[in-house]
Amino acid sequence: MTLPPLVIQVLLILVAVTAALIDARSRRIPNWLTLSGVILAVALNSFLSAVDGLFGVDGLLFSAEGLGLAFAVYFILYLLRGMGAGDVKLMAAVGAAAGWKNWLGILVLTSAGGLIAGLVLVFAKGRFRQTLHNMGTILTSLPRGRAPYLENPELDVRSEKALRMPHAVLIAFGTIGFLIAATIWAPR
Fold it and tell me: Which distant-in-sequence residues (6+ apart) come within 8 Å of 171 by Cβ?
């Protein structure tokens, strides 16, 4: 875990919080936000590594690795219809800014927040038994190479039957939580 430069921290917060606010209100994450986040992340990381005398190539690779890993992981979730396309693009922008190692920390915190928020939502909606059934469907479908949403429409994020929440909010919490943790524990 490394604390990104201040300009990258500001970019991460602006992109993640803006996406969270928009997603919470409209259940969409706009392309202009994610694309500008990727472009700014690549440009800033390249510029910052060029300032260090590395001709910008290290910063470009740093961003490309973060973008690639984040996109790959979330694209799989998108194919399984567990995430929307905006979530994939938002995490790609976060990965491009943070780099792949830091992105893994953001992913862990986002996932932990998602687990907690999901449990609260399940209990608030009285869906504990149905959620256990859905988890069983997931655990039996995936090993057979079958997408769980094909067996149960509640497991398709696009379905009206699905229990959904704006994932960008969780990504924002994971990103901010990571920046706080990195500020406290990162080597100086």
Answer: 16, 19, 20, 87, 90, 91, 94, 106, 110
Find, among 172, 19, 155, 174, the residue nearest to 79 by Cα: 155
Site of tokens 């969270």: 20
User: Cβ distance 131 to 139 under 8 Å?
Assistant: no
Prediction pTM value: 0.89
**pLDDT tens, residue by residue, 4-54:** 999 999 999 999 999 999 999 999 999 999 999 999 999 999 999 887 666
Each domain of the chain, given as residue ranges in start order, spans 6-127+163-185
In DSSP notation, 84-122 reads: -HHHHHHHHHHHHHH-HHHHHHHHHHHHHHHHHHHHHHH
Amino acid identity of residue 51, one-letter, is V
Contacts of 15 (CB under 8 A, 6+ apart): 33, 34, 37, 90, 93, 94, 97
- In the numeric block, the tokens 């005398």 are attached to 53
Q: Are 76 and 59 in contact (CB under 8 A)?
A: no
